[in-house]
Design a protein that fits this description.
This protein is an alpha/beta fold. The chain is 21% helix and 30% strand. The chain folds into three domains: 1-69, Nucleic acid-binding proteins (OB fold (Dihydrolipoamide Acetyltransferase, E2P)), CATH 2.40.50; 94-122 and 278-435, Rossmann fold; 129-261, OB fold (Dihydrolipoamide Acetyltransferase, E2P), CATH 2.40.50.1070.
Length: 440
Amino acid sequence: MAFKPLPVLSITLDRIVGGGQAIGTLETGKKAFVWNGLPGETVSFQVTKKKSHFVEGIATEVQNPSTERTAPDDPDSYLSTSPWQMMTFDAEQHYKAALIEEAFELHDIVLPETIEVYTDGRTAHYRNKVEFSWYSDTDASTGTETLDLAFFRRGSKGKIKITECSLLPESIMQTALKVRDILRTKGITARSLKTLLIRCDQQGNTVWQLYVKENLADIISASEATTLGTQGGEIIYSDPRSPASRITQRLTKFGNVVLCDTVLDVPFRYATEGFFQVNVPVYEQALRDMKQWVENKPVIDLYSGVGSIGLTIGGDHVTLVEINEDAVREMKRNIAALGRESSATPVLAASEKALDYITSEGCIIVDPPRAGLHADVIAKLLEAAPQRIIYLSCNPVTQARDIAMLAAGYGIRAHRGYNFFPRTPHIEHLIILDKLPGRN
């Protein structure tokens, strides 16, 4: 049965919402969440998802452009990677502050100070990690299949060919193109490949991982890998039954695939596929801001990753709790390299399974994933009642929810936003919580 194509509709947009889209109301009363639109604009938009109470889509024509609209640096691909390229940076800063305020107002929380979103002013070439997809089609003149780097189109399963991206350092983009060019000589098509993950440190040293759906251990030779000019690389088999680029088997390794960066002058090792901040300079400012609130007492760093918070600002007695085995492996290596075996304790556990470490004598630092704090962690914080909680969040919506629950025992001492991901809707937000007077 043929599916009816989704329609193109017209709408006047009202405001930006937490997901990053602009929202408006259709004549039918349905809400519409629209990418590539700004408040006050009347747009025609292609519907990409249709539900009973709302639709989603992408603006294809703007009748009355906002004064906040600007030409994107990546006109063909920005909606896939950084959909706020179409607004001025001043507008982006304004909307991020407004979204933080809105998230807390939903829980009847008024933040005590004017909301500031810190930025170092850099809006391009800041991202030190990227994952490309692949795309093949048939060349009409030769009948042969081509191979190109690609990003997924927002709102669909289609792909966009990529040869440049303003978010990425030159070293990453050049490495990607060189890998593509080698694979083109082998007759490989996108059907055999999953993704290409590339990461670089602050010095521009680059490591790549080619995820393949077949055993293609020899698809890039040692001599060819040398021509890439990178620190190292890997060919990795990833089970094609999973859409994600998970490591099933490491097939071939070239050079050194572990990166090292300094954060506030503290060196950290991390795996190419592991978690590490993608915008280190702005992250360092967040750490400086957090450091002034760290008390001179044992620090408990929950959701600690490789230890980049606890090992930089956690003082001389820090416990680091992390669920990811690979991150804890690198954390232990970092602790050993710093000679901190006696002052830093790594714990491999989910934070909600390590509640005994939360005590009234500790200073608690939390940096949870987008889902926010586990309910058991919140309950334990209220029970143990440490004097101070330092809460860095990548999702103000769940942070506000958690702060509302912690309000039974805590008040907001300070807060600040951070633009870790310029030209995208993503926001980081720091809250300092102090125990309310009279709490035991």
